[in-house]
TrEMBL record:
It comes from Arundo donax (Giant reed). The lineage of its organism: Eukaryota, Viridiplantae, Streptophyta, Embryophyta, Tracheophyta. InterPro entries: CDC50/LEM3_fam (IPR005045). This is ALA-interacting subunit. GO terms for cellular component: endoplasmic reticulum; Golgi apparatus; plasma membrane. The keyword Nucleotide-binding does not apply.
Length: 103
């Protein structure tokens, strides 16, 4: 197990792959293999649900999707602009004069 970067952290131990019904009883057996009480640490068991975009806080997943969609829209807009207003030969000569190309 790697050392955590922050003093409070959560480590995923496992996952439940079957669907649970509301009110269903879950039995968990634990072992204390590492003494965390000697330095004031504590251990807890957290049961949580994870959605498609992540766990407890889905802001980061949604942010990635929004930024990806904005980039895709900008790419499509630039493609349409390049197709509607193509560069003319004179524009290319202004950018790359023949004197520069002769070197």
């Amino acid at each position: 197990m790697r050392t955590a970067a922050l003093p409070t952290f959560r480590k995923l131990y496992g996952s439940i792959e079957v669907e649970l019904q509301a009110g269903e009883l879950i039995t968990v057996t634990t072992q204390n293999n590492y003494n965390s009480y000697s330095f004031g640490g504590k251990k807890t068991l957290v049961l949580s649900t994870a959605g498609v975009l992540g766990g407890k806080n889905s802001f980061l997943g949604r942010g990635y999707v929004v930024v990806g969609m904005v980039c895709l829209l900008l790419a499509l807009l630039l493609t349409v602009l390049c197709l509607v207003f193509p560069l003319k030969e004179q524009d290319l000569l202004l950018r790359y004069p023949p004197s520069r190309l002769a070197r």
